[in-house]
């Protein structure tokens, strides 16, 4: 699988680290934050189809990316810096 980094261009998957669901980010200030983080880390959904994920370009620009990937085919639909919204 290859991921297009907005800064570095298309690169091999081995340069990136998967950091989870881009939408399931609990609020650390919530009173039940420990439970919310437990659920986000260990009780994740396994969606079939386009899914927004966070990836870290560890072997490149060290940018955080929001990647839209079809989990059925691994096709990369879109990738932007995580600070941007598509
Ligand atoms: Zn990069």
TrEMBL record:
Pfam name, any one: SoxD
Top-level taxon in the UniProt lineage: Bacteria
GO molecular function: sarcosine oxidase activity
Record InterPro entries: SoxD, SoxD_sf
Matches recorded under Gene3D superfamilies: Folate-binding superfamily
UniProt record, GO biological process: tetrahydrofolate metabolic process
Protein name: Sarcosine oxidase subunit delta
Native source species: Rhodopseudomonas palustris
